[in-house]
């Protein structure tokens, strides 16, 4: 959506610190709410209660991001009109009032794009491309890498003939009418969009920081609940297990797997066969790398690292 990559290191450090001090937030998510009260409303089920809060954050994010991106897109469209070659870009910020003959019943000023390679031909020929062209009325108003923007003044009734003849010599006449009020309105609109974009960016970043924290906490609570539920399903009641958090480096990952397998292989005799064979359990999307004799869930802290 938006480019907040600079937050990556800060957030990764904070998430690691959060794991160290993690404590199940009973009050925030009503984890201990009795399931006897769940019959009246599914919203009181712990999982759904958490998902409801995260879903609200997601909806708010979509609304805020959409508003910001629309604003950014409108500004980029206006900026794009003022960029590019002279054949396509807006000329409003280039030309001036004195470049035109205005409010004349008979005369009109045209803007012509002349390739630099053909400029000498333009100087020699523009007065004879049609009848009633005002002599010495052409000036170079602007130039880019490939072309010159020139003006020329002629009688209104000769405009069509002039355009037709100009195309034969690769001179492109731009359709442009000088309107000071419209040009001023476009400039004010761009300034307004630019100001609004800056005003929205700061609050949006602050909102993202706050709600990333809330969403991440909810996500970790879901992980904790999944560990608990899976452990009960595997090992039964009464509850007699301990959840732990391990953070091995990549070099010791394989060794850690071997040690954990040796310690807990007695808990699930079927895990020995699963390590060397694929596993297909209806309703579960588990691959051979994800199933172990102990309950395991991976937590990736590098949430904002883009590859």
Describe this entry's structure for a reader.
This protein is of the alpha+beta class. It contains eight helices and four strands; from the N terminus they run H-H-H-E-H-E-E-H-E-H-H-H. The chain has helices at 8-20, 26-29, 46-81, 119-125, 159-168, 180-235, 253-264, 271-275, and strands at residues 107-115, 139-143, 147-155, 172-174. A hairpin with a 3-residue loop joins strand 2 and strand 3. InterPro entries: ATPase_V1-cplx_csu, Vac_ATP_synth_c_sf. One of its GO terms (molecular function) is proton-transporting ATPase activity, rotational mechanism. It comes from Accipiter nisus.
Topology of this structure?
Elements: H1 8-20, H2 26-29, H3 46-81, E1 107-115, H4 119-125, E2 139-143, E3 147-155, H5 159-168, E4 172-174, H6 180-235, H7 253-264, H8 271-275
Antiparallel strand pairs: 1-3, 1-4, 2-3
Give me a quick take on this structure.
InterPro entries: ATPase_V1-cplx_csu, Vac_ATP_synth_c_sf. With about 300 residues, the chain is of the alpha+beta class. The protein contains eight helices and four strands.
Overall 3D form = elongated
**Helicity level, as a percent range?**
40-55%
Helix-strand string: HHHEHEEHEHHH
Secondary structure tally: strands: 4
Average pLDDT confidence is 80
How many individual helices?
A: 8
Q: Which structural class best describes the helix and strand composition? A: alpha+beta
The largest pleated sheet is described as: 4 strands, antiparallel
Q: What amount of the residues lies in strands?
A: 5-15%
**Low-confidence runs:** 1-15, 38-44, 275-279
Radius of gyration: 35 Å
Main-sheet strand order equals 2-3-1-4
Distance between the termini: 16 Å
